[in-house]
Structure formats: C-alpha cells, structure tokens
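Supplementary Methods. Inverse-folding protocol.

Structures were first reduced to a discrete structure-token string of length 224. This string, shown here, constituted the complete conditioning input.
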C-alpha cells in the first residue's frame, strides 16, 4: 500500500483536493443560493436539490470546459510552437510531430512500448493522437453540458421575470453564454502563457515543470 501511494501520490493528491474543492463549492454555493432565495421571498432548497440544479451544473461545467480547453490547446500548440528558454517547450530543433525513430513507433518501437505504437495504419495514428482526442472529447462534452445547464438556468431567470424562455440555439449565441465562457478562457490562456515565460527565468527546485536551478536561461526543453 505504501508503494502504491508513493507511486500514485500526484494523482491521489489532485484527486483529493479536487473533491474537497467541489464539496466546498457545493456548500458555499448552496448557502449563497439560499440567501438569494430568501432575498427574493422564495423558500430555501436542500443541498441535494441544489447540487442537482442547473445553477450548480453551470458553475461546475463552465470551469471544466475551460480547463480542458487549456490543456488541449497546450498539448497541440507545443507540437509546433516553441519558446526559447522554457522547459514547457520542446527543444528548438524538434518542432513538429518528429520522426518515427524519435517517437519510438513502427519498426522503432521497443519491446516495452505500448502495442499500438508498433501497429500499422489507423491504430497507430489514433494512438499517436489519443491524448489530444480524449482532451478534445471531454472539452466538447463539458462545453455542451454547460450550454444545456446554462440554458436551463437562464430560462428559470427569464420566467421569474415574466419573460419568454429561449431555445438552446439562441442561448449558445447569447451574451450570457459567451460572457460565462470567455471570462474563463481568458484566465486560462493568461496562466499558461505566463507559465511558459516565467519558467525561462525563474526556477522551482526539483519540479519537472522547471529547469534545473543552475541551468542557463536560454536552455530549452530540459526539466529539473
């Protein structure tokens, strides 16, 4: 058990704090929602009803989709785009998808390589892009879920104000939907860009997201 915890400590750590943060969001969101209900002269709702509501679903999924978009774009952008001096970039002479030899695929696959890396045709192609494909699928799924939950929440507000509800197609081109979406996207893009640039000059000893403390600023594509 100790070995398992040590070898999987990173995923366990982030999984744990994710669940704690989600629980905290549910509790604080529930309290805020009930405060709003009381100020509008409406009855309070239970925690179970709140966490299954469109309001909670919208808040959760709009953050999920922006996070997965961030990583999707970063995974794909770093295939071709470079940043001199950043450990977040590949080495300056390795832009692109690289050779089969560099990627250990086809006849260059090792005995311990994943089976699909040594396969030919579609299987190798799919596996070669599997990380981006899964991230893309999760992004679009969570973005679609956000649009459905957001439409439901928006229409509840519309009806409370004696206004007509809107169709899904009208909602996804509305200012409400894109305001929620873009306020998350811009923060993700800023954070990723900042990380790529800050890591040129700043260090975090022992982190693979940083260069070795003594590495020159212009060193590119090395990890500490």
């Amino acid at each position: 058990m100790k070995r398992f915890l040590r070898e999987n400590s990173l995923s366990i750590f982030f999984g744990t704090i994710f669940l704690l943060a989600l629980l905290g969001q549910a509790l604080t969101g529930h309290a805020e929602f009930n405060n709003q209900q009381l100020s509008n002269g409406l009855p309070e709702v239970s925690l179970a009803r709140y966490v299954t509501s469109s309001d909670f679903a919208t808040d959760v999924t709009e953050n999920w989709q922006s996070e997965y978009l961030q990583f999707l774009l970063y995974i794909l952008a770093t295939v071709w785009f470079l940043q001199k001096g950043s450990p977040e970039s590949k080495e300056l002479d390795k832009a692109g998808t690289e050779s089969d030899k560099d990627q250990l695929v086809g006849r260059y696959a090792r005995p311990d390589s994943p089976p699909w890396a040594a396969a030919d045709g579609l299987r190798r192609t799919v596996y070669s892009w599997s990380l981006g494909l899964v991230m893309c699928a999760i992004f679009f799924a969570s973005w679609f879920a956000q649009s459905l939950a957001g439409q439901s929440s928006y229409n509840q507000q519309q009806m409370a104000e004696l206004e007509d509800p809107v169709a899904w197609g009208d909602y996804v081109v509305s200012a409400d939907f894109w305001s929620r979406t873009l306020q998350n996207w811009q923060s993700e893009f800023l954070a990723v860009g900042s990380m790529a640039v800050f890591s040129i000059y700043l260090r975090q000893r022992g982190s693979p997201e940083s260069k070795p403390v003594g590495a020159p600023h212009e060193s590119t594509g090395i990890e500490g």
